[in-house]
Write a structure and sequence with these properties.
Number of domains: 3
Number of helices: 17
GO biological process, one term: protein-containing complex assembly
Protein name: Nitrogenase iron-molybdenum cofactor biosynthesis protein NifN
Structural class: alpha/beta
Low-confidence stretches: 445-457
Strand content: 15-25%
Family: Belongs to the NifD/NifK/NifE/NifN family.
Region (Disordered): 438-457
Strand order of the largest sheet: 1-12-11-10-13-14
Shape: globular
Largest sheet: 6 strands, parallel
Function: This protein may play a role in the biosynthesis of the prosthetic group of nitrogenase (FeMo cofactor).
Helix content: 40-55%
CATH architecture of the largest domain: 3-Layer(aba) Sandwich
């Protein structure tokens, strides 16, 4: 069991953590025809916009209430009202997702009250959904903002259904965590559909940020789950949540609609995916398709091939709690040791990680603990640390701005896990050294074969 500690430094150096509003905005981007809106200064929105553009390499819809110093002190009702009216008239979204920021949370703006006043004053907005989420960036982190936003979507957009409602036996709700990429979602959709089931994914980044070229330009999100699909989630037969962060959303959906849920804290690794496939087979009443059985066999073979290169390796990981849990558990299964683990926010999973200590800190803390490790694993801001430590570096998470294909990185399912073994195994191979006779020599105290002995023979 790991000991969870907090960094005692006076300031953050080379941040690992990203803020709640960023995670909240990303969740809103998984909705069709949505416009995310930051209630805060222009700088907050500009920072998030640049981060997402560099990571996804796509046009990102994100607006701001543009709070000035005076507006922040006096209250932001006029700014919120003007922003909503402008977006409604120009972008014509189906939904506006509003996320608070540190400056407006410190002031204490009553945004829920603002929205009631705006609704009463502007009945022409009745056809647009307005969802507000409190996401102060002076507390919690990226995955917290995502989780709170998805829970809020469930509470406000899913229609309650009677207890005796007839469920659609083919429909399955999927609630992915913030660490699940569009590529991961495509893989999970393929697995679910292989059993004849229809996934309803909230939020669905695979439809909006998967890097496709749209037929027509739209100023709002270009894909994702529709409001009609969200409203009907109560008629699905089951909910699958991926990541401990999604437990509140799954519980809220069950409480509101009666749809039972199963939570998988990770879907990377053999045992975790066996449980996932067994659930799908049970829900569908169908045998496991041969192609999935073959994928499992390929993963087992990859584990056999790769464990020679993973065994005994020391790994340093910096990531959000659910991603840290996913990677550390998988490395442990492959025979590696998680020697350093740094994360961003609290989670009940942290104490269960197979390492001595999990630190809530920054990339400076990770670099200090990664000395002597064989691999550094974090997002792109860790690249300089890996250079200074002269160890291989594997990029994962957000932001990943110095490599192509971040949105399509896939580590879930049998295939995703198999490919992850190959990618990281190849890093170990590339950083290794050619063996020499001295490499295989025994220590002197055990009677090793030295040069003199070899010469005598």
């Amino acid at each position: 069991m790991a000991k969870v500690t907090h960094s005692q430094k006076s300031c953050t150096v080379n941040p690992l953590k990203m803020s709640q509003p960023i995670g909240s905005a990303l969740a809103f981007m998984g909705l069709k025809n949505c416009m995310p809106l930051f209630h805060g200064s222009q700088g907050c929105t500009s920072f998030g916009l640049v981060l997402f553009v560099r990571h996804f390499k796509e046009a990102i819809p994100l607006q701001t209430t543009a709070m000035s110093e005076v507006a922040t002190v006096l209250g932001g009702l006029e700014n919120v009202e003007q922003a909503i009216l402008t977006i409604a008239n120009r972008q014509r979204p189906a939904i506006i997702g509003i996320s608070s920021t540190g400056v407006t949370e410190t002031k204490g703006d009553d945004v829920d009250g603002y929205l009631k006043l705006i609704r009463e004053k502007h009945p022409e907005l009745d056809h647009i959904k307005l969802v507000y989420v409190s996401t102060p960036d002076f507390k919690d982190a990226f995955q917290d903002g995502w989780a709170k936003t998805v829970t809020r979507m469930v509470e406000q957009l899913v229609e309650p259904v009677p207890a005796d409602t007839v469920r659609d036996p083919a429909k399955v709700n999927l609630l992915p965590g913030a660490h699940v990429t569009p590529g991961d979602l495509d893989e999970l959709r393929d697995l679910i559909e292989a059993f004849g089931l229809e996934p309803v994914i909230l939020p669905d980044l695979s439809g909006s940020l998967d890097g496709h070229v749209p037929d027509d330009f739209t100023p709002t999100t270009i894909g994702g789950i529709s409001l009609e699909e969200i409203a009907g989630m109560g008629r699905s037969r089951h909910t699958i949540a991926v990541g401990e962060q999604m437990r509140p959303a799954a519980e809220a959906l069950e409480k509101k609609t009666g749809v039972p849920y199963t939570l998988f804290d990770r879907l990377t690794g053999l045992e975790a995916n066996d449980g996932f496939i067994a659930l799908l087979a049970g829900l569908s009443g169908r045998p496991v398709p041969n192609k999935i059985k073959r994928q499992r066999s390929q993963l087992v073979d990859a584990m056999l091939d790769g464990h020679f290169h993973f065994g005994g390796k020391r790994i340093a990981i910096g990531a959000e709690p659910d991603l840290l849990w996913t990677l550390s558990g998988w490395f442990h299964e492959m025979g590696a040791e998680v020697a350093a683990a740094v994360t961003t926010t609290e989670s009940p999973l942290l104490e269960r990680i197979a390492t001595d200590e999990v630190l809530l800190g920054d990339l400076e803390d990770l670099e200090a603990r990664a000395a002597g490790c064989d691999l550094l694993v974090t997002h792109s801001h860790g690249r300089q640390a890996a250079e200074r430590l002269a160890i291989p570096f594997y990029r994962i998470g957000i932001p990943m701005f110095d490599r192509l294909g971040a949105a399509h990185q896939t580590i879930v399912g049998y295939r995703g896990t198999r490919d992850l073994i190959f990618e990281i195994g190849n890093l170990f191979i590339a950083s290794g050294h050619e063996p020499t006779p001295e490499t295989w020599a025994y220590p002197e105290e055990t009677g090793h074969v030295g040069e003199k002995t070899l010469a005598a023979h």
